[in-house]
Amino acid sequence: MNADTRRLTLALMFGAVCHGSFAIGVGLMMYHLFFGLSHSWGAVPWPFAAFANLVLLLQFPVIHSLLLTGKGREVLALLGPDKRLSTTLFAMIAAIQLALLFAFWTPSGIILWQATGVAFWVMCALYAASWGFLMLAIMQSGFQLQSGMLGWFAMARGRDPKFPDMPTHGLYRIIRQPIYAGFAMTLWTMPTYAPDQLVLAVVWTGYCVIGPLHKEKRFTNIYGDRFRNFQKRVPYWLPFPRKSQDDKA
User: What is the DSSP letter of 114?
Assistant: First the structure.
């Protein structure tokens, strides 16, 4: 096997594992959130299940945040056979983290509220809309980057990854962090509410509010005044209208 064939084979293998993991992780999240985490498959006996669930709950935001740092990106570059696979490995690891949490969470067995009748269909519509919002935000921010395709596809072509420009269109005209906002929306719109889901929703919504601050600092370093002007024009997380300079005078 020559070098080009080996490179292409490795790129396709990493791409397949990445996108397979992505499909499994997101699929498990959609399914188990719909039932308020009451149908998850974890079987750790209580009260030890509380600790196991806490570890599963925190591993995603902690590792996700660490891998977004400069040191974290250096680690990603060392994990694969080619540094161009960094973004692919990042997406793969995030997907595996989601799969672990939603597959192995040990349910409390308590249901606080179950929508019925018209309320059930309203909540289903809201849940679907939340996922639609999240997927649209991912597409508009650069689907290849967010899905992990950017790295393996660049390696397959024998080129360096070409990162997308700072997103300012679509949902990014309304808020600066629609991916995090959409992610949080999926945590609150299911037709089944349980203590499990509420704990997850509170902790991860907090992360969705605080986590993007690191991303904004990185964007400020990359784009400078262009991003600072974007910050002045567009709200951070909620679409509250900004006052113009004339209004402030």
Answer: E
Cβ(130)–Cβ(180) under 8 Å?
A: no
Contact 185, 24 (CB under 8 A): no
Compute the distance between CA of residue 123 and CA of residue 204 in angstroms, rounded to an integer.
20
With 60 as the cut, is the pLDDT of residue 248 above it?
no
Convert the pLDDT of each residue in 62-103 to its tens digit. 998 899 888 888 898 888 888 999 999 999 999 999 999 999
Per-residue pLDDT of 1-45, as tens digits, reads 688 898 899 999 999 999 999 999 999 999 999 999 998 899 999
CA angle 57, 140, 170 (to 5 degrees): 115
Instruction: Give the per-residue pLDDT at 13.
Output: 94
- The CA distances from residue 9 to 5, 14, 92, in Å, are 6, 9, 18
Letter string b/e over residues 82-105, b meaning 16 or more CB atoms within 10 A of that residue's CB: bbbbbbbbbbbbbbbbbbbbbbbb
Cβ 111 vs Cβ 117: under 8 Å = no
Determine the 3-state secondary structure of 194 from DSSP. Answer: coil
CB atoms within 10 A of CB 181: 24
User: How buried is residue 3: exposed, middle or buried, by Cβ count under 10 Å (0-12/13-18/19+)?
Assistant: exposed
